[in-house]
Design goal:
Helices cover about 70% and strands about 0% of the residues. By secondary structure, the chain is mainly alpha-helical.
Length: about 210
């Protein structure tokens, strides 16, 4: 259904837009305090100061506003690809990789609860969440693939290495670091050490240097 129509097929006006935004904010707030499986439609409606009937005018399940939040978060992620498109010559590769990693970490701090659900449900094959994750990471994957392919063509990588698959692995590595950052710090590892080490790994995987 088009984004400007509600579940009844009616056009969403200014008032309806505020109601939908209230549902999204309520869902985001609840996810900061509870697991997805613990949240009911009635909980979201109560958090938003609405009735469950109001909720069902815009969404069928709790997962639907979560997916909408993931799609909105993707807009904040796209500018990070600039770090992968810039200068990666010499020592600048480490600087650019670290800047990308810091950006991803900040992004996860802001949107972590939704992103964990996106990963979980995408891994389970939920079509909407698969598409959300693929769309969010597509620009990053393409930027990484181009750099890896260039390094591969000039002999910096083994012949059997697949640039596209490697781009997925590198992006997943950084996402995994961001998702588990607090756990990594429990080992008495300084945050800067985590960031620097991850940047060195990314540079090696991308450039072969």
């Amino acid at each position: 259904m088009p984004a400007n129509l509600n579940k009844l097929g009616h056009r969403i006006g200014a008032r309806g837009g505020k109601t939908r935004d209230a549902i999204l904010e309520a869902t985001k707030s609840l996810l900061q305090r509870r697991h997805l499986g613990e949240i009911r439609v009635a909980d979201v409606a109560a958090e938003a100061g609405l009735s469950p009937t109001n909720f069902y005018t815009y969404y069928k399940t709790v997962e639907e506003p979560v997916l909408a939040l993931c799609e909105l978060a993707s807009n904040d992620f796209q500018p990070l690809a600039r770090h992968l498109d810039g200068d990666w010559s010499g020592e600048q590769a480490f600087v650019a990789a670290r800047a990308y990693i810091v950006g991803v970490l900040d992004f996860w701090h802001e949107h972590g609860p939704m992103l964990r659900i996106e990963h979980m449900l995408a891994d389970k094959g939920e079509a909407g969440f698969v598409e959300s994750r693929v769309k969010r990471l597509r620009r990053v994957h393409l930027a990484l693939e181009r750099r890896i392919a260039q390094a591969h063509a000039t002999g910096y990588h083994a012949k059997g290495l697949d640039p596209r698959l490697t781009s997925y692995e590198v992006a997943s590595l950084v996402e995994g670091m961001a998702a588990g950052f607090e756990l990594l710090k429990r080992g008495d590892t300084a945050p800067d050490t985590i960031l620097d080490t991850t940047a060195h790994i990314v540079v090696k995987l991308v450039t072969g240097r």
